[in-house]
């Protein structure tokens, strides 16, 4: 199966998880059709935007940072992130992410369920 970019659902979320600004999600596939996963998307945060803190139980979320810089709160600890980094959150842990740079922060988000 091939899914072309123009056929992917684009979603804009204001204040995602009580964060700031507008988050753009490009859903590579429909999460309802995935097995052992519920999200596979490209996420873009403009400068100053964020996804608020949230917890992952019975699943693990991976952020693969593609472009930009930001700050991740990983179980209460603030850590700078940049292109090439991977953030892993699961087993009841919580995280948030904010674009602290001057260019868009772009990353792939994958949520694996178990």
UniProtKB/TrEMBL annotation:
Protein name, UniProt field: Cupin domain-containing protein
GO MF term (any one): metal ion binding
Superkingdom, natural source: Bacteria
Keywords, comma-separated and alphabetical: Metal-binding
Cupin type-2 domain sequence ranges: 43-110
Taxonomic path: Bacteria, Pseudomonadati, Spirochaetota, Spirochaetia, Spirochaetales
Gene3D superfamilies, per database record: Jelly Rolls
Pfam families: Cupin_2 (PF07883)
């Amino acid at each position: 199966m091939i899914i072309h970019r123009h056929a992917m659902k684009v979603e804009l979320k204001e204040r995602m998880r009580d964060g700031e600004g507008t988050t753009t999600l490009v859903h590579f596939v429909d999460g309802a059709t995935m097995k052992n996963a519920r999200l596979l998307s490209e996420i873009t945060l403009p400068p100053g935007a964020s996804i608020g803190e949230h917890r992952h139980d019975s699943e693990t979320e991976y952020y693969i940072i593609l472009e930009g810089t930001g700050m991740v709160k990983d179980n209460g600890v603030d850590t700078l992130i940049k292109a090439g980094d991977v953030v892993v959150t699961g087993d009841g842990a919580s995280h948030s992410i904010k674009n602290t740079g001057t260019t868009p922060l772009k990353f792939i988000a994958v949520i694996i369920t178990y």
